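quick q for whoever's on today - can somebody do inverse folding on this one?? i tried earlier but teh output was garbage lol. tokens:
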């Protein structure tokens, strides 16, 4: 019990070196540095009753040991299926042998059985750094989770959902997880479960994407969240720090409406780490109020391989990928392993749009790009074609499958490329993917404001010029 942080971290490095890299990738194993473990454990409220702690995917026990220093008396149940890590875990929890149990079995299977048979009392506390790994639709873990009423696409969300359901009333959970669950359609059932069953007490994010698991070279935005099962939802403490040392940490209390917008059907979870900006009022309208729609690019190229045309020619239609656009605008055709066009056929035609003014946003921004949202104006005059195919890695803003008014499209492009929009988007998105659902969920200026931006737009605007232009809108 008296092991200090430096010793635990030395054991973590030692254990990490002994892991089979293939098994590590298979199980999504990224062990928790002691400083993060200590911070997470410090988020538990002072207790007035003996604690029963759950730690699933426990690794060498960094989180359980940190929690045990905060919660006493405490009984620990820990799960770890990797035999190397389980050996360290058992030895590290040995001083608590009379009050700890190390399970070698699969946590998901054990938890689902426990929920179905209501075996044992609920846990008063849970602390988790769950495995991060996608799970297939027909996988055993996906089917087990469905038995417990949990629908998700990643192990980490499955672990957290099960831990929530295993908590006793007023039980507390602290977890470090990727931010990907905060938005997107695939995690909506998980968000609904979390918000239905728990109150959110604390959200903490790191400024550096590499900070939390630097030793494992993980480029993933992580979030520490603290929940209370069945708690009354009040204001939420939102904090952030430059890195995992927690030096310079800033925190503020925010109303829950700033975290989950009232009436939001997607239940996006926002993490506003900055003060509300002076131009916040321009984020006032939904796309439907503007008469604008957004969809993913209709052309899924692998389904149309037999109609590929490496270069445009007679009887072809342009096929536009993200690599055709850059800061200089459209470069088409372009020498690339992907085709530049599609041969016309009834099978191809149903996926085409009339050549017109569209606003295109990359679904996957490169990690090195300054902004998550990277928008381009598709000007129909750049292509001598009646129809065009937009590949599936685009999000396409349109009006009823037709092009937008040219001035409106220019204004929308300027707006989407503004730094203020990027900061707002980052409140709920912690990864480089931009989904049509995300864009649909955002708020936009009025149509009149977008038209004003379109009138003021000039070719080749710099980022500073775009931001200055947006700042003039009242």
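ok took a stab at it. sequence:
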């Amino acid at each position: 019990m008296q092991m200090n942080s430096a010793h635990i971290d030395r054991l973590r490095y030692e254990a990490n070196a002994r892991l089979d890299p293939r098994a590590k990738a298979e199980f999504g194993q990224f062990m928790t540095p002691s400083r993060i473990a200590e911070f997470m454990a410090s988020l538990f409220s002072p207790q007035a009753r003996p604690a029963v702690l759950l730690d699933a995917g426990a690794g060498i026990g960094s989180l359980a040991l940190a929690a045990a220093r905060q919660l006493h008396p405490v009984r620990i149940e820990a799960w770890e299926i990797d035999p190397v890590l389980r050996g360290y875990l058992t030895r590290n929890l040995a001083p608590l042998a009379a009050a700890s149990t190390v399970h070698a079995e699969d946590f998901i299977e054990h938890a689902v059985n426990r929920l179905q048979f209501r075996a044992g009392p609920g846990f008063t506390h849970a602390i988790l750094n769950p495995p991060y790994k996608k799970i297939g639709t027909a996988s055993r873990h996906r089917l087990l989770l469905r038995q417990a009423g949990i629908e998700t696409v990643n192990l980490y969300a499955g672990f957290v959902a099960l831990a929530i359901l295993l908590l006793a009333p007023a039980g507390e959970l602290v977890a470090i997880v990727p931010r990907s669950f905060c938005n997107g359609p695939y995690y909506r059932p998980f968000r609904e479960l979390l918000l239905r069953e728990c109150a959110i007490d604390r959200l903490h994010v790191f400024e550096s994407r590499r900070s939390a698991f630097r030793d494992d070279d993980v480029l993933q935005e992580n979030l520490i969240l603290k929940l209370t099962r069945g708690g009354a939802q009040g204001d939420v403490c939102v904090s952030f720090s430059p890195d995992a040392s927690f030096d310079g940490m800033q925190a503020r209390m925010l109303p829950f409406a700033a975290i989950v917008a009232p009436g939001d059907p997607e239940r996006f979870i926002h993490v506003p780490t900055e003060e509300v900006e002076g131009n916040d009022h321009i984020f006032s309208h939904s796309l439907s109020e503007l008469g604008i729609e957004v969809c993913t690019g209709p052309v899924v190229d692998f389904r149309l391989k037999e109609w590929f045309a490496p270069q445009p020619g007679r009887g072809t239609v342009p096929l536009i990928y993200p690599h055709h656009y850059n800061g200089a605008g459209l470069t088409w055709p372009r020498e690339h392993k992907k085709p530049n066009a599609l041969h016309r056929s009834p099978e191809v035609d149903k996926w085409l749009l009339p050549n017109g003014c569209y606003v295109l946003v990359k679904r996957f921004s490169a990690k090195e790009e300054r902004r998550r949202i990277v928008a381009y104006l598709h000007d129909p005059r750049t292509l001598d074609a009646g129809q065009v195919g937009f590949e599936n890695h685009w999000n396409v803003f349109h009006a009823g499958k037709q092009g937008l008014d040219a001035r409106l499209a220019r204004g929308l492009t300027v707006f989407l490329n503004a730094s203020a929009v990027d900061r707002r988007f980052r409140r709920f998105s912690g990864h480089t993917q931009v989904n049509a659902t995300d864009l649909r969920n955002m708020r936009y200026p009025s149509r009149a404001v977008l038209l004003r931006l379109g009138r003021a737009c000039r070719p080749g605007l710099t980022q500073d010029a775009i931001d200055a232009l947006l700042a003039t809108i009242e």
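fwiw The CA atoms of residues 203 and 225 lie 5 Å apart. also The first helix runs from residue 5 to 18. so keep that in mind when u check it
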